[in-house]
Amino acid sequence: MKNRSIIKWKYPIALVGGSSLSVVSAMLLTSLIKFFEFAPPQSSLILNEFFGEGVGIIHLVAIFSLVLLVPAIEELLFRRLLWGMSGFLFKPTTTLILTSLLFAAAHLNILLALALLPLSFFFGWLRLQTGSIKPCIVAHAANNLTAVLLTLI
Prior knowledge:
The protein is mainly α. It has helices spanning 4-8, 10-36, 42-51, 57-87, 92-105, 110-130, 134-152.
């Protein structure tokens, strides 16, 4: 179900969408934490502590991993492997919903999973519209880069 107009603009849409939804997810996570009076996810605390000392070579390696390696691996797993497997059993929209829910749940924190749902559905929508995981990887990388930059400021 490829959309030609989306395909033409897939990378700008991925960059803007991934970055914008990163901010939305961060705000949603903050709101959920305050509303439910939960502690922030352990991963957020670790990142804040890790980057609290400044940025050195080890930090640059971590940023590279978070921004490029993790998105590629996660999108290969969820939007290529699981999408392909579930695509044999379900309609494309059901596959999008299923893989998006599994992606969010894989982050192992209910509040973080809820905050990641808009991003996860966006990644799935990109996959459905373009037939490729490349825009998903770009959007995921833009999201992670934005999240790292928000952590640093």
